[in-house]
Every structure is written in C-alpha cells, then in structure tokens.
UniProtKB/TrEMBL annotation:
Domain Alcohol dehydrogenase-like C-terminal, first and last residues per copy: 185-298
Domain Alcohol dehydrogenase-like N-terminal, chain residue ranges per copy: 33-143
E.C. number(s) listed in UniProt: 1.1.1.1
Family as reported in the entry's similarity comment: Belongs to the zinc-containing alcohol dehydrogenase family.
Reactions catalysed according to its record: a primary alcohol + NAD(+) = an aldehyde + NADH + H(+); a secondary alcohol + NAD(+) = a ketone + NADH + H(+)
Annotated organism of origin: Actinocatenispora rupis
UniProt-recorded name of the protein: Probable alcohol dehydrogenase AdhA
Keywords: Metal-binding, NAD, Oxidoreductase, Zinc
Cofactor: Zn(2+)
GO cellular component: cytoplasm
C-alpha cells in the first residue's frame, strides 16, 4: 500500500474562501492495537466537517484530516482485533472513543462521555486514502447499497435517527423539519415510514422539490408557518434564529430537537409564545453506538433513497465550498480514485 498517501488537512481554520483545507502527501497510518486500517472508497461531506474547517469548532488536532462518514474495506488489523477480516466492507463514523466507565457510559449515554473522541476532529478521518478506526467503534454495513450511498448514513443518517427519537414523535403525528440537507432527507423518510405527516421548511427551492418527491406533505420557506400545528420538530439548519420560529409552530406539549453540533445565536425567547403549554426544547449531542447499529438495521430493512452529489477525492475543497454556499442537494460524497460504486 506504500508509505504515503494523498489526503486533505485543515491547515488554517477559517472561511472556505481563505482556503483552510490543503492537499498534502501524508504517511499511511499504522493501526494500533485494537484498530482497523481502512482503505477508503467513499467519504461523506458533513456540515460538521465544514465547522471544523472554518473554525466554528475549536481545534482538537492541528492539521487534522476531516471526514467521519467513511466507507471502505479492511486493509489490515492491529494486535488483538477479532471478528474482522481483510477485505470486509466497514463503516467509520463520528464517535470513535468513550471511556466506558463514567456514569454516562454506564447508563447507556456514552454520547455524553467527558472522554469521548471523534473521527475527523480528534483523530484523522476519511479525506484520505486510508484511515484507522477502533474495531469496537466500526460498523458493519447493510447490503443493497453502494459505497457512496452508505457514506451519508454514517452521520447524517445516524444523527437524524437520534434527533427523530429525541423529538418524541407520537404515532401518526405531524413533524416539522427545518433545513433539508443530507440528514434531513433521510430522517424524513424514516418519519414517513412511521406514518408521520412531514412538513419541510427550508430556503432552497431544489430542497423543497426533493422533499415533496420523497413524500413530504408540504414544503415551504424556512421562516414560514407550516400548514398545521406540529407535534414535533427537528432543526437541522445551524441557524439559531429558526429556534423561536420552530417553537412557535409547535402544538401544546410539542418537542423541538436541535440536531446540529454548532448553532448560531438563539434570539431572546418569549415564554408565553415559545415555551408555555409544556413545549420542550432539547439539543442532540452526537450519538451512541446503539443508535448507529439500530439505524443501520432500519436502513437495511427499509430501502432509503439516498440523494448524493459525488465529487472526486481531489475536489474535497470544492465540495466543502459548495456545501457552505448551499449548492448541494442531498449529501455530498467524496469518491476515492478507482473505488467500487
């Protein structure tokens, strides 16, 4: 496999116009004990990668290789790994380490572990030919999907599933989705499969058209009122000014879950209009491995339509620039040279 590989590093975090992402010749990583070495075939381009590149999230690893929606094949295994074989398809997601002993880990809330570590932020990710992952945090992938389709499932899909779960959607209820990118277009399909009536509120006309094609009951501008009160809502757009908009659209007892890791400032809320009558506002923080396994099992049973926009691995900077400018419909995915479909 050679001693070096092409990859992308966040050299100087800042707006995409300043070129924070630089291509470089990097050493091929060695899998440590308990790790897999993965030859990357596809890597989704997530808005969290954009937050890492632009400095919205603080630097955890200088010069980090972004990317945490990685699909590839096991190229080698570190000492002590069992249950994985060279050549198997494998998924690498955002969460890559928890302590396993704190009170949150013991309670099944490992997403809140103070010692949690993340792919593409604390450790190098998938914007390169090879990446490593602790075997205990690697995922077996459902059949019937190509690698490019699978990549967005590993963050956009998993975090959307958790956001939907935390939105406490009643059976056959009315769900509002604010923003309609990679995560939202997958979550909407899950909700519709559960019998929900889904109303999409997003600024891009192309995204509204996609929402209607996927079965949404309505699609309108992000700051518009839905056609009926909502039982639950999920905010995917990282726009704090939409929080009071979504809260005001909730019926009594409704819940708004905020799915992003980063959000611009939330305006002052009016208690009577936005929170009274037992409306709930809650954040979504990463995910547990159980979330990932449960969602991927659901994706294996319910064939999801995964709308992707492919880019060659050598165009990662362009993909992130397009994402920042809202020029991507569905999910952007980097495809490695010579990778299988």
């Amino acid at each position: 496999m050679g001693a070096t590989m092409d990859g992308w590093r966040v050299e100087r975090p800042g707006p995409m116009a300043t070129g924070p992402l630089r291509r470089a010749e990097l050493p091929v990583p060695e899998p440590a004990a308990g790790e897999l070495l993965v030859e990357v075939s596809a890597c989704g381009v997530c808005r969290t990668d954009l937050h890492v590149a632009e400095g919205d999230l603080p630097v955890h690893r200088p010069g980090v290789v972004p990317g945490h929606e990685v699909v590839g094949r096991v190229a080698a295994t570190g000492d002590g790994v069992s249950g994985w074989s060279t050549g198997e398809r494998v998924g690498v997601a955002w969460l890559r380490h928890t302590c396993g002993v704190c009170r949150w880990c013991r309670a099944g809330a490992e997403n809140l572990c103070p010692e949690s570590r993340y792919t593409g932020w604390d450790a190098d990710g998938g914007y390169a030919r090879f990446a490593t992952v602790p075997a205990d945090f690697a995922y077996r992938m459902p059949e019937w999907y190509g690698d490019a389709e699978l990549a967005p499932l590993l963050c956009a899909g998993i975090i959307g599933y958790r956001a939907l779960r935390l939105a406490e959607l009643p059976e056959g209820a009315r769900l509002g989705i604010y923003g309609f990118g990679a995560s939202a277009h997958l979550t909407a399909q899950l909700a519709i499969a559960q019998g929900a009536r889904v109303h999409v509120l997003t600024r891009a006309e192309s995204a509204r058209e996609l929402a209607l094609r996927l079965g949404a009951a309505s699609a309108g501008p992000a700051d518009a009122a839905p056609p009926e009160p909502l039982d639950s809502a999920i905010l995917f757009a990282p726009v704090g000014t939409l929080v009071p908009v979504a809260l005001a659209a909730l019926d009594r007892g409704g819940t708004l879950s905020v799915a992003g890791i980063h959000l611009t400032d939330i305006p002052v809320l009016n208690y009577q209009r936005h929170l009274f009558e037992e409306r709930t506002l809650r954040s979504v923080t990463a995910n547990t491995r159980d979330d990932g396994r449960t969602f991927l099992a659901l994706a294996g049973r319910h064939r999801l339509t995964v709308r992707t926009t492919p880019y060659p691995m050598g165009a990662a900077d362009r993909a992130l620039t397009d994402l920042a400018a809202d020029r991507v419909t569905g999910a952007a995915v980097l495809i490695a040279d010579g990778a299988p479909g």
